[in-house]
Structure formats: C-alpha cells, structure tokens
C-alpha cells in the first residue's frame, strides 16, 4: 500500500514519517513512535483507553487515521508529565484518590479528565460522570475516578498555567 | 517510632508507572524480528470443516506460515481441565486449533503468521474454509433433553452430575422429608422457584495478549494472565517441554476477574509457532475476539425448593442446577458450580440441604471462573428466594433473615455443608447498614408511593451474604478432586543495604499487592514501607506459586509473606545474639531492632543484613544469608460477610430502573489497606450491579454472539452508576494470624441480588414476582404489562421468567429501550 508523508508534533517533538493511509493514529503512536503509554482496549471506539489530545482537545486515537493528524499537535499520557518529572495535577489526583487498579484505562481516563476540566473547571459529580461516559473502567466502579477528577480540577485551578505541552 | 503500616491508607506503589504511561502491558513488548499472529475463527457455532484452503493466505505478502489444526495436532494434545469433578466426567477433546469439527462460533480453525500484524490480519481473511453446518444447542433446558448434541461423538450433552446431600453426609437432615412435610402440613409452606443466571463476559479492559521469545535456552512467554505459574506447568505438560525450559512472565495485567485464569488456545498456539519458526511471536486479540472467544461466566438455570414453617423458620433447601459448560471444559469450568454448592445455605441455619448440579455442554464458548465463581450465583438464588419466602409469609425480609441467620455467639459454626465458619457478626453488619440506609424512612416513603399510585415506585433491595475466601486448604481441594493444592509461596530477602525484597507467588492484576505486601513486611520487620520492593509475576523470580484468583491473595499469599518474614527474624536473632554477645533468650525484637532486654544495647536488622553479606564474623554453622522462603497452606477458608441495601426507583410507565441509593457494610476481617479495600468494593459493586441491570452475553438462534462488541455488551460507564455508601465491621478471622478474610468478590456477590430484590420489591404489589436479568427497561415494562393482563384474567401472580432468545435480543439493547418504543398492547 502506498505510503503518505506526514509531519506532526507529539509530546513536543516534531516527527516526519511515511505511513499507510489506513494506519490509525493510535497504531502510529504505539508502533512507529513507541508511545506505548496509549493503549488499545476495543475496536469500536467505546472504551476510550486510547484517548489523547489533538490540539489540546481529547480524541480517541483509534478513531482517526494518522494521516488526519498531519500538521497537528498531539499530546499523549507521556507528554503531560513535566520535564523535571513533576506529575500533572490530574495524574497526582488519580494517585491520591486511588482512582486506578489495573491501570489499563488510566492513561485514557486522565487525558479525558484533563479535557473535561479544561471545559468545566469546577465540575459537579453529574458533569464528571457524563463527560467520562466514553471511557470504560472495569476495576474501580468510577467512584474514586470521579473524586480524582474533582480533586484534579481544584489543583488545576490553583495552577493556571497548564503544564501540558501544546494545550490550546 | 511506632510502626503501624497495617491498617494505613497507603497510596499505591504501583501507580507511578501506570499514571505516566510507562506501564508494561504485554502488547507493549516489541522484540527484534518479531512475527505476528492472526487467528482464523469459525463463523458457525457448530459445523464440520469439509475443506480448508490456506494457499492464498500462504502466498500473501509478508506471510511466513499458515497452520491448520492438522498441522499442530500431534504437538499439543488437549487443552487442560484441572478439575474433573466426578470420576466419570465427560470431556470432549479440546484442541488448540479445531481439526474437523467446530463447536462454538469463534473457535480457531487456522493461524496466519506474518511479519506485521496487518499483513497477518489481511491474509487471515483469505483463508478459505468450507463448513457443513450442524444443528446447534444453546439453551440449557434444550441441552438437558439431549435431542441436539453439542458434540455428537459424546452421545450426550451431560458432562457430570454432582450431588451433595446433608442427610447422606451426616451434616444435616434429609431434605426430601422436610419438603414433603411442608407440602402436607398446614403450618408450613413450600416455595418453589426457577431463577436464571445469564451468561456474562468478564470484559477485562486489556485484551489478552501473548508474546513468546524462543531465542534462548529457555522459551519465555509474556502473557496477560492471572496465573503465570499454573500456565507454565500446563504448557510444560501440554507441550511436553520441561518446566525448566519455559519461563512465564505476567507483566502489568489489565484486569482479569477470573477471565484470565485459563490456559488459552491462543497461548498454546503462539508458543508452538514461536518454537517452530524460532522467532519471537506476538498475538494480541481484538475486543471482538475477546468477547467471542475468551471464556464467559455464570450461565445457570436454578431450580429451588425451600420449605419453612409459617412463622418463618426454614426447614429445608433443595437446589437443582443446570450449568452451562459451553462447548469445552476449560481449566476449572466444571468446578465453578461446586464452589457455589457450599454457599447456598449462606448465613443461615438451615437444617437440611441437598444440591445437585448437572453440567451440560452447549455450542457456545466455554464458561469458567468469573468474579466470585459459583458464589454470586448461589447468593443470588438464596437471597431472591428468601425475599420470595418473606413475601409469601407477608413478613419483613430483614425479619425473616434475622430468624434464620447464625447468631454471633454461635461462632465458630459448622454449616449444613460441613464448612466451619470461623467468625462473623451478621447482627452488627446489618444494624449498621440499616442505619446508614435509613431503612424505616425509606419503607415509609415506599408505602406513601404505593398509596398514591405514584408512577415511579420505590423498592428496597436486601442482600446478606457470606462467601468462602482463602482458596484453599489443599486437603479440601483434594477431597473435591481438584488437580492441585491451595498453598501459596513467598520469599523475603534482606539486602546488604537494609532494603527488603519480597517475592510472592500471587500474581496481581490491579489488586495492589506491591503496596499491601510492603505494608505487611514493613510492620513485621520494622523497616520503612519505601524500603520494601515486591516482585511477582515471573516464574524465574517467583519460582513457586499458585497465583491470584478467588480472593486468595491476602488470606493465603499474605500469610506466606508473614511466614517468610518470621523466618528471617528467627535467622537474624541468632546472628544478633552473636553480634551483641548475648543469649538469644535475652533478646527482644521490636521496630526493626534486636535489643538486649533491660539494656540499651541493640542491633538493627539492616546492620545484621550487612554483617551477613560481609560474613566476616558469623557464628559457627550459620550460613551467609538472611533470606527465607515459606509456603502457607490454610487450615480453613475465611468467610467474609456483609449486608447490602439498595433503594431502587422503577418508572412503571417506561420500565426504567434507577439506583437511588446503595449502602453496604462488609465484614472482611482485619484490613491491611482501607484505600485498596474501598476500591475493591466499589469495583465489585459495579460488576454485580451490571449483572442485575446491564450485561448479558446474547446469542442468536444460530449461536452467533450478538453482543460481540462494546456497542452491544453494556459494560456500565461512569454515567450509569451512582456513588456508593460503603462501610465495614471488623470481625477478625481466626483462621490466619493477620485476621484477614478477603474482599475482591464481596461487592459482586452481594450487589446483584440486592438490586434485583429491590426491583421486584418496587413492583411486587403490582403483580410482578420475577424479572429476568438484566432488568432492562424493556423487560421491566413487559413484566408490568403482563401483570396488568394477568390480574385482569386470573388472580394468580404472573411471572416473566422464560428466557426466550427473542426476549434476550430485545434486552441486549435494553438500556436504550423504553416501554413506549415497544408499542402499547393495552
């Protein structure tokens, strides 16, 4: 299959690569860039394990082709930790609130939660639950995830400058 | 400093890698020259393979090999079933790749091996298979008739009949006498019911993945498994490779819930292909493959007879199960209902009990362990039945339970199954739950809504439960014909730096063992929590073990850790006495230091570790090692219990069920880490509630899985669930020194009956006494419509309990259905 050239920024680094048009963004991230922190849990865009940010908004990276990300800015779970290793407030909140068990859904959950809080800086429980509808977790029953998102929101509000590279 | 790690809500050590994307899930592993596998699966539930043409696939770009069942059948024998529950149990040959006959939709018929995953998948589509379709048997009541056979060669669908009878065992009375007495006596009552346990899919979030590296003296397999040790042994036995040549690593594993307690065809095939090609191979399933071909859980028809006096004393319980094995027997498929056999009498003092289960084959993927394994099914049935009995007697269901449960002062108590319940306090847990719930107020509101004819009715769901954890005393497993023991292994190693390495034979997949085991060892040895490293999930490191399932890790594996740590202390004491020039009898050990009683002379464990490493001056006959290992085999199970209460709103116009409030008080004995415990309870509740309201593996009449993706199989999202009120009572287990009982399955076991009891309680006065799970809006609405019609024509309370396939089809999309979408027949 003929390959297409793409140029995009992932976690602050610009890459130029040739990809098959059918290559999904998540495949490109995992297989070509080694960004294996972004995980694949389903093949129907239901589970949200592959959620990343495209130009600062959350998307499911199994739902777009790598070629569609040409010229865009992608942030993965690996890009939200500061260069000095400091955790993003949402990562910290997930840890503090025990919002993960097996951790498979966690990168997607965290990426979705950051976008949620960017849109709803002080979300109530119903808002959190509604906005996490596209990310499935089988371990936690969600209660601690909801708690974490609210705690992360408070922390993010106290830190106006997002540590996230490329956030809108 | 007083060390009090045990009981402290420590944040987890595991989290760091998982929240930063540096996890080590199997599919993340890439090895040089790695090949990729794609499976060709049967679209038919039952068929003969008449022709298999792999030539196009073999010639496709990037393809290295295409193998059929015939190509590997000499190598791999049959996949293992480790629990032949009866000597005459029937078990069909279970090949890794089908040869001539497929018995469920999704069974593997060929494997394509290629240089990339997409090349393998593309080529798999070109494998040309001709099938001659055979009649399918899917329904248990059909399978029981033996008219259509899942495996014609077996001559029957019956795998085994297993019976426990308290009269015969001498642990109780004769149930048939109790039942016939109830049939005849005016002051007694007999309640007979049939309940259905739908098939569920474990639906762990990480699809199963296996990487095999054959390029070394040992063949190394990484697998998303709960059971690396059992897997290694079974691979060795199945493939005739010495254990020492096989290393199995379970790295980060993305959930299991019993669904990864298996030796899978995919693992065996990947192993064979890697060894044959000499190259590393990877197979990662898609979600569709996972839902279709990873084993399912539950799947029972439960026929029950309960006799009682009119004042509410139960006199006998008889249980007859039909159990869906699916097409093959997996690792513990046949034993799952046996675990439930011991749990039907639950927390009650029932004088007589008989349990019979008939294990039946159907043309569906096999069933096996799923969170709770046998115990949720039993708890559901008995708790539904107790509510039905209470309704028949017009008695408060809490009152009925009080009349029959084992009073606190009677522990230890030997159940009618012969199990000894070590400790429990059902009164305390129930009292606390009722208070947190606001039981009396909610009952008053319920009455108000009934009186007013409110379209939204309120139901109160009650579920009390006990389960057996700490699987298991090896002698008990032996008496049940299980193929292995129930011990667990641990090693504690003092390093020269004073740090500690703990090796555990348990294999976590989200349970937080690294944190909890660190807490145990930190307290035991008096070292800092941060200085303990827990190693697991690699048969080259944890050389022995029986892995993680059945809430056994803490009550068995944690106890092995304690035993190993205690041996380290005993070893260190000899050296400490030598270093301090004191008698061992004069030494005491506390907070990590040996001191000479009555003096300020002492030596810390870390210093002893360094002295042992240097070995310059050790006492005679003492080896230069401060490591110890231990196995722990429990004397008895542990018996967590609890009381769960649910307030359920049912919209009688649409059938919509809303969970308004959920309160649970669990007694899991002593707690190592309350944060982890709370997380396990929340997750368990979500899974149990999902069985009650959302989830069901639905097959169409040809045996195709209709719920073959997350579009159709409704794993609840955050938006579908409320927050829960959870609390605990703590009655220490007396069967282990930590006093722990196990928590992983409690929420799942108790919540399903609590929810369904609540739904029925909301609408029972409208003439509905049963609704099939999941209680989707369409089913609830249909039950209410049926009740309306029934009441007009006949005084008898109608039931909706027939599991027609068509009804299941409707229910599969039930969460988006409402009554109005069905048309009103009134």
SSE layout and pairing:
The complex is a heterodimer of chains A (168) and B (826).
Chain A: E1 4-10, E2 13-19, H1 25-32, E3 51-54, E4 57-60, E5 73-75, H2 89-96, H3 106-119, H4 125-131, H5 143-157
Parallel strand pairs in A: 1-5
Antiparallel strand pairs in A: 1-2, 3-4, 3-5
Chain B: H1 15-19, E1 35-41, E2 47-53, H2 55-59, E3 63-68, H3 69-76, E4 101-102, E5 108-114, H4 117-124, E6 128-133, H5 140-145, E7 158-165, H6 166-169, H7 175-184, E8 188-200, E9 209-213, E10 219-223, H8 228-239, E11 246-249, H9 265-277, E12 281-284, H10 287-293, E13 297-309, E14 314-326, H11 336-341, E15 353-361, H12 375-393, H13 397-404, E16 413-414, E17 420-421, H14 426-437, H15 439-452, E18 456-466, H16 474-479, E19 488-494, E20 500-504, H17 513-525, E21 532-535, H18 553-580, E22 587-590, E23 593-596, E24 602-604, H19 605-614, E25 627-632, E26 641-651, E27 657-667, H20 674-693, E28 725-729, H21 746-763, H22 777-793, H23 805-812, H24 819-822
Parallel strand pairs in B: 1-12, 10-11, 14-15, 20-21, 27-28
Antiparallel strand pairs in B: 1-5, 2-4, 2-6, 3-5, 7-15, 8-13, 9-10, 9-12, 13-14, 16-17, 18-26, 19-20, 19-25, 22-23, 23-24, 26-27
Helix pairs in contact in B: 12-21, 17-18, 18-19, 20-21
Task: Give me a quick take on this structure.
Chain A is an alpha+beta fold and 168 residues long.
**Strand order in the sheet with the most strands of chain B:** 3-5-1-12-9-10-11
Low-confidence stretches of chain B: 792-826
Estimate percent helicity of chain B: 25-40%
Percent helix of chain A: 25-40%
So what's the overall shape of chain B? globular
Contiguous helical run count of chain B: 24
Shape of chain A: globular
Structure summary, number of beta strands of chain B: 28
Spatial strand sequence of the major β-sheet of chain A: 2-1-5-3-4
Largest chain interface and its two residue counts?
A-B, 55 and 58 residues
Unreliable stretches covering 5 or more consecutive residues of chain A: 160-168
SSE succession of chain A: EEHEEEHHHH
Counted beta strands of chain A: 5
The amount of beta strand of chain A, in percent, is 5-15%
Percent strand of chain B: 15-25%
Average residue pLDDT of chain A = 94
Sheet of most strands of chain A: 5 strands, mixed
> Oligomeric form of this entry?
heterodimer
* Rounded radius of gyration of chain B (Å): 28 Å
Terminal Cα span of chain B: 74 Å
- The whole-angstrom Rg of chain A is 15 Å
